[in-house]
Write a structure and sequence with these properties.
It is a single chain. By secondary structure, the chain is α+β, with helices and mostly antiparallel strands. It has one domain: Endonuclease III, domain 1 (Orthogonal Bundle). Helices cover 44% and strands 8% of the residues. The chain contains 6 helices and 4 strands, in the order αααβββααβα. It has a 4-stranded mixed beta sheet with strand order 1-2-3-4, with helices on both faces. Helix 5 packs antiparallel against helix 6. The N and C termini lie far apart (38 Å). About 4% of the residues have low confidence. It holds the Pfam family Integrase_H2C2. InterPro entries: Integrase_H2C2. This is Retrotransposon protein, putative, Ty3-gypsy subclass. It comes from Tanacetum cinerariifolium.
Length: 135
C-alpha cells in the first residue's frame, strides 16, 4: 500500500527491476508530473560526457542527420540512446535485457531487436551475439 493506493505485486516488481524508488510524504500530497528514469539510463547519459567516440560524433553533428543532441546534451541516434564505449555499462545493459521477465532466453536475434529499439552503439549486434553465446 502506497499513500492509500493498493499496488499490485507485478507493479512493485517492475518498479524494483527499473531501480525506481518511490517516496511519499504527507497525506495530502500529489504530483503534477513525474519523470522516472532508471539508474542505468542515467549512468549511460552521464558517461556520454566522457566518451571520445561520442564526442567525435557530436563534433560532426552538422555534417549528418542520423544523430542529434537533446535539450540535456544527450546524444541520440534517431530515437535510440547512444551508449558510450564503456564495457561495464554495456555489460550491465546486456544483463538487464537478458534477465528481463519478458526476454525468456530468446536468443541473440530477438535480444538484439529488442535492444535496438531503444539503444545504439557501434558493434552492438556483435556484442549481443557474444553475450548470448556465453550463457
Amino acid at each position: 500500500m502506497i499513500a492509500g493506493i493498493k499496488v499490485e505485486k507485478e507493479i512493485i516488481r517492475d518498479l524494483e527491476w527499473l531501480d525506481i524508488e518511490l517516496y511519499v510524504r504527507g497525506q495530502h500530497s500529489y504530483w503534477a508530473s513525474l519523470r522516472v528514469e532508471p539508474a542505468l539510463i542515467s549512468q549511460i547519459k552521464e558517461a556520454q560526457k566522457e566518451d571520445s567516440e561520442i564526442w567525435t560524433i557530436v563534433e560532426n553533428l552538422a555534417e549528418q542527420t542520423e544523430f542529434r543532441l537533446d535539450e540535456d546534451d544527450v546524444l541520440w541516434q534517431g530515437t535510440r540512446l547512444c551508449v558510450p564505449n564503456d564495457a561495464s555499462l554495456r555489460e550491465a545493459l546486456l544483463t538487464k535485457a537478458h534477465s528481463s521477465p519478458f526476454s525468456v532466453h530468446s536468443g541473440s536475434t530477438k535480444m538484439y531487436q529488442d535492444l535496438k529499439q531503444h539503444f545504439w552503439w557501434s558493434g552492438m549486434k556483435r556484442d549481443v551475439a557474444t553475450f548470448v553465446s556465453r550463457c
